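My main concern about presentation is that the manuscript never shows what a single data entry looks like. For the editor and my fellow referees, an illustration may be useful. For illustration, here is how one protein appears when written out as sequence plus structure tokens:

***
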Amino acid sequence: LGNADQARSIVRRLIWGDDAAPDDVTLSKLRQLVIRSYLADKDLDDAQSAVIRYRLDYPKDAGDWPLLEARLFLRAQQPQSALEVLKGSKGDAAEMLKLLAGLRAGSIDPGDALARAVAIGTSDKAALEKRIQAWAVAAEAADDLKNPLARIRALQYGLGLQPGLLAKDDLFALTPDMLWDAYLAYGQDLGNQLQLVVGDDQGWFLAASNKFDSDAVSACALFSVVAFNAVEPHQRDVAHWQFATLIQKQRDGSNILRHLYLDSSRFTTPESVPSDVRYILVNDVLDISDIPLASRLMQGLDAPPPDTDPAAWHLQRARIFVLGGRPDAGVKVLDALFKSGAGFNPGDVLPVLFDLQTIGRDKDAIPFFEAILNGSLQDEQRRQLLYWTADSYKALGDYAKAAELYLRSATLTNPYAMDQWAQTSRYQAARMLTKAGLVDDARRLYKGLLNATRDPARQAVLRHDMQQLLLAPDSQHGLGTGTHQ
């Protein structure tokens, strides 16, 4: 995560804390972590001192200290020294350090280094970390070769392999900002070749559009220049959208797109990403189930994207806001949708209302349940909605209202109904009546249920609940015998 100081403080406690001293093997590993933390902090002096002391205390063939020392030499711009300490070292880490050191020392031709790195990066047999490091080497070799296309592809392949957190490694650096810089540099070179002038937005758009289908990388490069340099804000937004659309179509495009717009210093917050790009990102983020991030991306996206059903879009927004920790925003979106008069399927609203119930926002859910109940519904739909509305009143402690709604759900199609749904609703109503102190009414419901069921287990539950009524103070009159009929 790049927090070297915190890591180092933990390691120090493990070495010098009050617990038993670590064994020699563990101690050597902990001291290597200290060296790595200094390197991560770019503190080369302390890292070098720690390496020297480590070498004095441990023989050269102990642990991975040659790798750490090689990293230190590479950071200090001494690649030849790094190659010397790596002699005899084996394994993936040593192989990649040798390749990088050889490239920087000039002992490996950049073309050969690029070919070897690409071979590793595209190998399904290589470990993921090794493949990522290989693409970092490939990007550096391509830069030495003055090959912007190869550099862009290497950076994209490396970033695309990482759907989540990016590897933080200054030696094998792969960052979204590096890719942005590569695209912008290449785009400016192409613009110069085409004699385009910054500020002539239409000329840049035309040049990019001509390459849209045939050369995605070149088109992206030209769009990137317009995206960050166009005179009109609208033109910048359109260029970002075109750029994002092309990136998404490439290999691992969704991963690359998220890194470019969500992990780059060019965009400080998700809200600062152009709205047209956020429409694209929202679906990608939902695919990886990052609801809080999707909620932030949706903030301010009040209008649906093109060719999208407005009601479906707003319901999706509402649900993401609720699940993403912004229930007030979700309720606001729902309220606007209901007041707009737009047509929608009541069943599509229910998942949002259930989510409000789940997070304890029953008071907010009730007006929407009741608004749907006032509309045109089939009997079975109304029956279910009455039940779910009753659930919210129950959660709020309004037991009499909950009981009324449960009873309406049970008797909507037939006042004497005793099907499974009706029995469940009557049972809930009886429980609510008990909580509301309407004991006589509760007792009558329990008796009716007991007469209607032949299941011994259910009969036992009902008898138990009726016995509990004997303990309840029967101080209130019932709703009246006619209420339930």
